[in-house]
Amino acid sequence: MKVKAVAKGDAVSVKMLIKHPMEMGRRKDAEGNLIPAHYITEVTVKYNGEIVFHSELGPGVSMDPYLAFTFDGAKAGESISLSWMDNKGQSERVDAIIGGT
Hints:
By secondary structure, the chain is mainly β. 0% of the residues lie in helices and 52% in strands. The protein is built from no helices and 8 strands. The strands form 2 sheets. The chain has a 4-stranded mixed sheet with strand order 5-2-1-8, with no helix packed on it. Strands 4-3-6-7 form a 4-stranded antiparallel sheet, with no helix packed on it. Strand 1 (2-8) and strand 2 form a beta hairpin.
């Protein structure tokens, strides 16, 4: 997961790119077999233990989803925790330091 978080004034702008196949379960491989569904179901971002962003995704989202949002109350040098989980129980969690402008 690639993350960029930048504080400007009281607002923090967060951009993330999640590497994931996001298969919907309806496509077929070269032999004509259905490719099993494999997609992210939820993304959560926390600051100081509090959820500042939460999204529920599904099979209609394209491969390697890009998400962006803004929240208030954090400063440059502080950290946020980002995590995702998919329909197969796989997950990833990263901490990112908020940069300044």
